[in-house]
Write a structure and sequence with these properties.
Among the domains are: about 130 residues, no CATH class; about 140 residues, Histidine kinase-like ATPase, C-terminal domain (Heat Shock Protein 90). Helices cover about 70% and strands about 10% of the residues. The protein contains 12 helices and 7 strands. It is rod-shaped and about 140 Å long.
Length: about 400
């Protein structure tokens, strides 16, 4: 019992204008009852009380338990039936219409039609009782009386059907507005999520660019400085040339910092051809590290800027890793294009490493992310003492899609 009582929940009437309409209808019934009271010199207290209770019940509606909703509707119908037993409630259609209106807030479509059917049956029962009491003895009057009863029944049937449809439309409109509001809220959440993802992607892009460009410049600068320190005492002239190159690398590092601060918008500027940029990069590494680097680079005039940047940064990062970790003496770089794909291969004869070992650096991960961003495939082949080979393939379809996007 305690659980049942605690499960009873009520909500305010969701449509104030319908509640006011109900009260106007009940007030009309009460006014007619008072008018009749002046004729009979007796105030129908019970009649007014029933109308007052029905009006108060419209302030709140039960929610949740279906059983409570049925009980609520049964109480309404019971009050009206009690009024008919007392003989006070002569304007039954008005009260039955109120029951039908409230049932639309309580039940789904099937329940609403059931309540409407019960109300119509009760109305027919009341009409039948009225016919038995008030049927005239004159046959001609009986015909007019019967037609009058039929007209009332038809009007009432059309009335409850109209009220049912109207209330259903009002509720449907409210539900549609609620769904639209929910959809709008969901869209705002999606937009916020997309914005957050875009911010994360942009941060990752900036991190990769800082690592690939600034990291390369600082690594090369460190190499030049170390070499200059070693040669300072024995060969100061050659050491001076290394310091000059280190100064040039320092300026380049400053330029990369400025690029990063300005959100790395270097893509908007016109770049040199990809093969020329790679040759310049390789030449700098030859001079600074003494590595023997062989290149076989084809013309890449049709390559889009995002793909060209991916290729350039991959070569740059691969050379940096080779010098820092591989202890290699020879490097081979091959870049070719076919009708189907663009293929880059960077291979060294260094000591290699275990590919299963987790790395804390950004190098390999940055290369993989860049390759994936242009719908390419990244392949790493290495083992302890067997050198390392990096191979990426970018299909021509990716070039076409990226060109259209740009």
């Amino acid at each position: 019992m305690i659980f049942m009582i605690s499960s009873i929940k009520f909500i305010p009437n969701p449509f104030r204008f319908l509640l006011v309409t109900e009260w106007v209808m009940l007030a009309s019934c009460g006014s007619l009852a008072i008018v009749e009271a002046f004729q009979g010199h007796t105030i129908p207290v019970q009649h007014i009380s029933i109308l007052f209770v029905l009006g108060l019940m419209g302030l709140v509606l039960p929610s949740g338990s279906q059983f409570i909703k049925v009980v609520y509707t049964a109480i309404e119908i019971g009050l009206i039936f009690y009024g008919t037993v007392l003989g006070y409630l002569h304007i039954l259609p008005t009260l039955y219409l109120i029951v039908v209106m409230r049932s639309c807030f309580l039940f789904k479509s099937t329940g609403r039609w059931i309540v409407t059917g019960i109300v119509f049956i009760l109305f027919l029962s009341d009409q039948y009782k009225y016919m038995l009491r008030a049927i005239p003895e004159d046959p001609e009057q009986q015909i007019h009386f019967g037609m009058h009863i039929m007209a009332e029944t038809l009007v009432f049937g059309l009335g409850i059907f109209f009220v049912l449809q109207l209330t259903n439309k009002v509720l449907s409109e409210r539900q549609i507005r609620q769904k639209l509001a929910n959809a709008n809220e969901q869209l705002q959440k999606y937009a916020q999520t997309i914005e957050e993802l875009a911010i994360v992607q942009e941060r990752n892009r900036i991190a990769r660019d800082i690592h690939d460009s600034l990291g390369h410049a600082l690594t090369s600068l460190n190499i030049q400085m170390q070499t200059a320190v070693k040669l300072w005492d024995k060969e100061p002239v050659q050491a001076h040339s290394f310091l000059t190159q280190a100064q040039s690398l320092g300026k380049m590092a400053m330029q990369e910092v400025r690029k990063s601060v300005s959100t790395l918008r270097e893509d908007a500027r016109e770049e040199r051809p990809l093969e020329a940029r790679i040759e310049t990069l390789v030449d700098d590494y030859r001079k600074g590290t003494g590595l023997s680097i062989c290149t076989n680079i084809c013309s890449c005039d049709t390559v889009t800027k995002p793909v060209a940047k991916t290729i350039y940064r991959t070569v740059q990062e691969a050379l940096t890793n080779i010098f820092k970790y591989a202890e290699a003496t020879e490097v081979r770089i091959k870049l070719k294009t076919t009708s189907e794909e663009l293929c880059l291969t960077v291979e060294d004869n260094g000591k290699g490493f275990d590919p299963q070992q987790k790395s804390s650096g950004f190098g390999l991960r940055g290369m993989q992310e860049r390759t994936t961003s242009v719908n390419g495939q990244f392949q790493l082949t290495t083992a302890q003492g067997k050198g390392c080979r990096i191979k990426i393939k970018i299909p021509n379809e990716a070039h076409t899609v990226l060109s259209k996007a740009l």
